[in-house]
Amino acid sequence: MGHLIEKKNIIISILFLSIFSLILFHYINSSCGMVSTKSLLIPLNYQILESSDKQGEINNISSIDIDLESSKWSITDIEMNFTNIEYFEPDIYTIEDIPIKDDLFLDKHNVKGLGVQFNLNDTTTISGVYLYIKALVPHTLDEINVQIRGYNSSINAPNITTYGEIELNYTIADGWNYQNFASPISLSKGNYFLVMEGYVHAAGEYHWYYNDLNPTNPDLYISKNNGYGWGNSTQGSPFLYKLVQEINRKNVYPEEVNMTAIINGNYHKILNGSQNGSGYLILSGIEFSTPNEILHILIKNNRFLFNLSYYLKLKNQFLSDAFVNITENEDNFWKIVPDLNRCNYNYSVRIELPNHWYNVSVFKDDINITASESIVINGNLLFILNDTIHDDVNWEITANSPKIDFNIDLSRGTEFQLGKELVLSAIAPTREGNFTFILYNELGAELDKKTIPVTSDETLYSFNISSTASLGNWTAYIYWNNDNDASVKSQIFTIVPAPHSSDTPPDIIPILILAIVIGGASVGGSFTVYQAVKRQKRKGEIKLKKLSNKFKDILSLNYLMISDNKSGVNVYEQVFARKTIDPSLISGFLDAIRNFGVELTGSYRKSETLTLDYEDSVILMHEAEYFRLIIVMSEKPSDELINSITNLARDIEDRYGNMLREFKGGKVTQFAGISELIELHLNVSFTLALKIVFDKKVKLNPTEKLVVQKASEIMKQTNLDYFYSTFLMTDQQFDPEMTKTIFDLINKKVFQPISLNLEE
Amino acid sequence: MKEIIWIYIIDSSGATIFGYDNYVKGNSEVNHTLLSHFIYALQSVAKNMGEDETKEVEINKNKFFLIKEKLTSYLFIIKTKLNAKPEVISPILTKIKEKFVEKFTGHFTLPVQDKIELLRSFKEDVKRIIEGKNNLSSLIESLSKIN
Description:
The complex is a heterodimer. By secondary structure, chain A is of the alpha+beta class. Among the domains of chain A are: 55-88 and 252-314, Sandwich (Jelly Rolls); 110-239, Sandwich (Jelly Rolls), CATH 2.60.120; 407-496, Immunoglobulin-like, CATH 2.60.40.1930; 549-672, Beta-Lactamase; 688-753, no CATH class. Chain A has an 18-stranded antiparallel beta sheet that branches. In chain A, a hairpin with a 2-residue loop joins strand 15 (260-263) and strand 16. Chain B is an alpha+beta fold. Chain B contains three helices and five strands. Chain B has a five-stranded antiparallel beta sheet, sandwiched between helices. In chain B, a hairpin with a 6-residue loop joins strand 4 (62-68) and strand 5. In chain B, helix 2 runs antiparallel to helix 3 (112-146). The interface between A and B is medium-sized, with 33 and 25 residues.
């Protein structure tokens, strides 16, 4: 029996212990939350430098074109060796040069062409000719050309073959004018004609001097074209001309002929080589890229023919796919996955890694090749060398880095009620990178994930806790990273139910409790406390009502106008962020005032400000001694606005009264400052497009920071560089706290109005 | 179509031409002064939009889909909940725009009373377009459940 009792006791004890353990386990779980350690994979771009060399040979060229295979490359070094350099030296061969007569010329009605024979004893390249001419009354519509034509031996005149042609150059009105053919003309031995012919539009005359007295070449024929063909060929009086020929000089030293390469717009002299006809050019420490994949190098004057061997060093910086895996209580894990496509010759890759990364490994098709000779790690530089880089290979570079510390500001507490906003701010170790906030509920389910770039000292995160959300311990994971560092912190928040009575201002509760404690249970004491609470509540309600009225009034503003009483001229007007005002509305309204008795809205008149319903608008008019202030609104104004208008009118009178009294029409720029008074009394900025102006000196509270952040996010979303205050109101509902904060931020000049024209 | 909250059409000056509230139980009452300013302000979001281009922006936990009509420069706006899908909303918006153009082309100079009548019938069209899409969405949804 005793044994049985003992056994029963043991069973009861085990049962008790089991229940106790279960309770304890549940307690531990509840207090710590159900979120296990989380990790976050953040994609990044990592900068990689690839380099390659390009070498080759090209023969028999006059300019250089090197195919770089891609336009991505920057050229950092150039080495070029030139051999078999040939130079086409220009040489002027004078045929006739003594001007005797000038009575032969092209004109509109008689002579259409003049020509002179020339003879070549050998194959010759002609790059241009000099003609001794005189241009009288030339016209822009004249079309005169200089040609090298074939020789018609039967009539000793030009034939129909044209070997080269150029528009006549007559920059020197009376004298030698050089005619430069676009490309040198190679002519074989024989007779040719040099011709000047074309169409003269008006009174122009193009004279070509000739020598009929003592010509050097009296046997050369000259010929004329009178519009019916060439003929009238005669000898003994050749026109004055010089041929500019090119003499082919082989194996010249480049310095001797000033051979110059034009690279990226810069001129570089080619230096003499060790042998006849050779030269070189070495450029290092340069950096330029080409608009396409061809490196095009011109040789100045284009008078050279050569063979070339070249060696170029190229580089390109590109962004590679990468990521960092951040896990609490573990070092960060980095992986770079570069897409390496070998190019040209001697291709290598350099990656600059942060100093504090360790355990750097290089994987080629999943095989760790860190220890191979093709991988060099020198300080924080990692090189992957030429021999190991092949196409269609998967590369991975991995490393670890220690966590870097950052702070979380929990000044708003760690306990939040349902229906409220959970707010925390994080301070990045450096003002760069991103914060990623992930919020999990008590069951570990993800509720929210936001990535916010670090743009200021503090980065705010907020989450609206719905009124039906689950209670308990929620965990926020706060990840920070840039391209080199990363870290994570977690924070538990307790979500509690909202109190039943939300009418009593929270700051009154401690006072209430204190009053009750001090006053004990006495009825008188309680009554005093009750009265104080009631007063406070009433005060709060009045304040809220005022803010709501102000908000409604401002958004109802359509138009404001100030006109001079004497002349009726508008000295100031402002259209608010609403539809444009039909000018006939105001003039019709003023006519109605003048001609008829106008029914007063609600039959009230506040000071000197009249409020009237007119068509679909409400018009407010304030009559002052020298001016009339008219405001058009879409809704009835509050009493506060009417008071503000009266005050505004008084200030305008004080500051601009004298100017208005003496105003006799003309420029109204002197009244531009009225806008400041309008802002002071009516806070109209609230209704205008606003920009954010960051000023370190202006201190912002957490709510203000949050609103600034929200405005920034909206600007990003809408792709605008401004926003409107109503964009910040959830569901287009009046939000007193938001409204007050926007007013405060406008006052602090963090939100500043900008002028826009939406109809642009 | 529970995701749609309202539809507005505004002219180039920001004046509301047409408004349709897709009343759903639980939606809070609209503050017209604020809404009017907000809709005006949305116009600036559509400033550089081209013809037939639908723009989607997220403002304060709602999505706004916008499309512009070329001839009149009228802006058609649909406000939805965050979970609305562009592939569902954009065709609705285009259809509403087309219906509006079809209905009002040549009728902009009608007497006010006739315009009011036209708008009333257009409102019915908008309702049908939304509900039509609703039925289609339900069908797709039920079919996907079967699969």
